[in-house]
Structures are given as C-alpha cells and as structure tokens.
Amino acid sequence: MTSEPIRDPVTDDLLTPQNAALVVIDYQPSQVGTVRSIDHELLVDNIVSVARLARTFDLPVVLSTINVANGQGPTIPELRAVLSDSPEIDRTAINSWEDAEFRRAVEATGRKKLIMTALWTEVCLAYPSLDAMRDGFEVYPVVDAVGGTSPEAHRAGLARIFQAGAQPISWVSLACELQRDWARTETVADVVDIVLTTRLLKTAAA
C-alpha cells in the first residue's frame, strides 16, 4: 500500500486545509428556531461538526451574525464554544456579501475555495454564494449543515446556487476530503472522534 505523493495542497482541485476557508453565517437562535427543512438538533450537531473540522485542519474561519446590535441573539452557544477565537462580524445587510467588513474578512483569508454554511438556505446562503462565485470564488455549500424555512425553500435555494456552479458537499464528505489519507496521522484521531465516535457510531447505537 503506497500512497501517491501529496498533490500541491494550494492548487489541488479538491478541498485541502491549505486552499479552503470556512464561512459561517447567522447561526443564531431565531434562525435555527425557524428552520423547517431539517431537525434542529441534527442541524446544530452538523454545523458543530463542521466547525470542529475547521479547527482540526486549521482553516481560516469567517463568522458572521445579523442584527445582534439591534437585539437579535448572537451565535448559538454550541457553535460559539468551538469558534470561540473567531470574531463575530455583525451586519444589517441580509446579503453578507454586501457588508464591507464581511467581504474584507473573506478576502483576507487568501483562499478561493469557500466552504459555505448559513441560515437560511434560500436567503443568507444563496445570496453571498451567488455573489462570491461572480467574484471568482468557488463555493462548496455543506448541504446537511444548512436549513431553510421550508423543505421547498431549502431545495430551491440549493438548486439556485448549484445552477450557478456551486459544488455540494456533506459534513462527512468534507471531513474525508480534508483528511484525504489515513497515513496523514496528525489529524486522524480528531477526525475519527468528530465523525465516528461523537456522531455516526453514537447514532448507530442509539
């Protein structure tokens, strides 16, 4: 068993820890509470797993909220605990790409591959994804870590960005794409814990 030499992690067509950034938009109590396309507990578990993967692989993270300054709740505590060192960029713009601080934060990562997560799918995921792709970024929405106000709205939001060129991934496929080879032992223990011990094996045993 001989793995091929590691491809250039910056120019690799697939996601790598060196060419991707995670974008997390509006995982706040009111947004989570009004999602109707996925079970709320599953949604929270999935986005927390995505955040843990970002920390394991040391991805740049852009974390944003909407209207906290005007009374909306901040990022949900389960997610904030994982992303405690990521500053929250609060906005009034529904389309985060139309917020100057948010755009600058994304550009400052130096990454062109954006792992996109947001609530709701049809609004806060769709709008910045479409704009980011127009501006030359590649967008990878994590389809099982986002949610819409109805199943139909969620599907329509995803369809809209897929037609524009977004590449859908799941949180498990994200984990495997970043890990790529079990011989890369420095992250194996964390990935096994995030994907299997904490999530999939626990679900199977339940």
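The record above closes out task 2.4. Task 2.5 opens with a second protein, given below.
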Amino acid sequence: MDKKTVKDIDVAGKRVLVRVDFNVPQDDDRNITDDRRIKAALPTINHLIDQGAKLILVSHLGRPKGTVNPKYAMDPVAKRLSELLGKPVTKLNDCIGPEVKAAVDAMKPGDVILLENVRFYPEEEKNDPEFARKLAEPVEVYVNDAFGTAHRAHASTEGVAHYLPPVAGFLMQKELDYLGKALEDPEKPFVAVLGGVKVSDKIQVIDNLLEKVDTLIIGGAMAFTFLKAQGYSVGNCMVDEPGVELAKDALAKANVKGVKLLLPSDEKCVQLDSEVEVPKGIPDDIEVSICASAAIPDGARCFDIGPASVKEFSEILKSAKTVVWNGPMGVFEKKAFAEGTLGIAKAMAESGATTIVGGGDSAAAVEKLGFADKVSHVSTGGGASLEFLEGIELPGVAALMDK
C-alpha cells in the first residue's frame, strides 16, 4: 500500500486541488459542533502552504442530493478553517466554472481557497467524467486526504485523478499505514474486536479477518446472532435472522483456521418492551440484571456485555501486540450500558499494542469515553475503514500513484 504522498512531489508555486473530508456536524444555527475532521486535515494543508503551493480545497457537507441547499453551504467550515490556520480562507460560491478559474488564476503561493459543496452537483456522486475534468481544469496537482470518502468512486475522489497527477495527503497516508500494516503484516498476537448490530453487514470483514487474526472477539448485538447459531435462546434480543447461517459458517471457518472466536459469557439484561426505541427510549434509571449469555431469560433484552466478559476480553487484549476494533459492545450512549465498551477501550489503552479503532460508532465511543488519545490510531472513515477491513480495494486509494 505504498502510495506517493505530498512529500514526493514539488508543489512550489503550483495550483493544488486537495480533496478533504470537511463533512462536519452542525447545530440548527449552523455552528460546527465537532471540528475534528477539519483539524485532521491541517498537517497536509500546513505542509502545502509551507511549500508555497496555492491550495484549492474541495469537500462535501451533508447530503444535499445534487441540489443547491444553503443549509449545506461551506461558509461555516471556511470560517472555522480560517481560525485554525490563522490566515484568510476564501470561500467561493461554486466548485467549477469561470468564477473558480478567475479566483485560482489570481492566487499567490500560500493562498487558500475553499470551493462550494461538491455535492451540490448530481454529477459528483455519479462520477461524471466531464464534471471531474471541470474540477481538474484550473489546477495542476491532485491530493486526496479524505480517507472517509475513499470507498466512494465519486468525481472528486476518483474521477479527478484521471486528469491530474494524484498523490495522498498525510491523513490518507496515516490511515493506509495503520490499517494496511494491521492486515498485511501485523505483529502477533493479532486480536480483532467486532461489535455492532448485523452479521450480514460485517460477514465480509469477519471472513477476511479470520484469515489473519489469532483471536476474534464478537460483542454488541451481533453476538446474539452467533448465540442463536449455536442453538441458545436469546430472549427478546435483536437477532439478524439472515445472519444466523452466516454466523454458523463463520464459527466453522474459525474452527478450521484455528482462530479463537469468542462470544460474551454474560450480558446486561433488562425487561423492556420490544417496541421501545433504542437508545432514546431507554430510561436512565432502568433496572439492570446480569445473565449468562447461554441462559438469557424469556422476554429479556440485553444492551451490553457483562462484567465477566469484560474481564475475559480485557485479559486477551492486554496480551495482544496488534488490536483492531470496529463496533461498540453495547448501547454506550446510556451510562447503564457503557461499561463493556469502556472496558474494551481501557484494555486497549493499557495493552501496549498497536491499537486501531475503526471509524463510525467505535470512534465516537472512544472519543466520548476519553480514550481517543490513548490508542495508536482512530480512523476517520467509518464505511471506508470497514471496506478496507473487508479486503476491498478502495476506489479513492486505487486511483493514487504508487511510489
């Protein structure tokens, strides 16, 4: 996974198009509530400024569905980026066309422009070649620093690379280094922890990891599908019915490969109506009991792994040399069901291993629980990191030049 990066090319005085992932959450007044994605792009942006490049940044924001929607305009992002850089960021009202060309032609080395939301055009998500050509037209070099969108073959992530020399930014390089090494040459013992809901959503990840790991730990709601596949009663717990046969196959494959596939031995259970929306409908003062995973009471619903499981999983993690984690152990948003996910995060932080947290809910969990700076790497891409773990080549990565 050795791709050329911004360090491998001369950018002095050149017009450089940088695909960033500035898809940040905002409140109803359009105040940015979490600027981590903007901060994650700063090393690449600052390097290019220092090298005397003329920076043209492009990103999507939200899901405007190919129409111009002021709610998803990039203005708040430009304002926050300007504050973080300590210099002006010119925000344009389009991402292609005469206005963009004129503004780019007038740039001086070190100047920064942020283009308007690229998804205001339906051609972006269709990876329209003509739209990609128009994006590329005013610039000389392309840098992809948006790992979070690298699994999408869109005009700004893949199409534009056909018209310009394409290289990786530092954030993209970091993602590929950590995830690539974990899958291609991990230090052993290699332990993977998978949580989340549907086995059918993660069966490719499970299949790919069973070829590489020493131990695979399954938690979260996925565990109930595996327990059902083993013939246990799972009360009213969520089961991915299409995933039951897949779980049986995975258990058989683990056995053949000599991989330890571990399920929780105990769960935190509650009596809760099956219609109640999770996590919103769970009362904060709900009465919780611990039950054995092999004997979940009729009518019970379980929302976290129990203390015995936390202890067992933690001991395995503390003896690992490489750990990849994707998916929480329970409904960590509720205090009563956060201990399983917290225990995994804590054990990873104390393990001394190379620890990689896949994006999405796992990233949100380690951030909320205060462990984001205590693991080796928190991926910025939920869907992208998942597809990477499946062994799928990501279009946005495949388009970059090899070293």
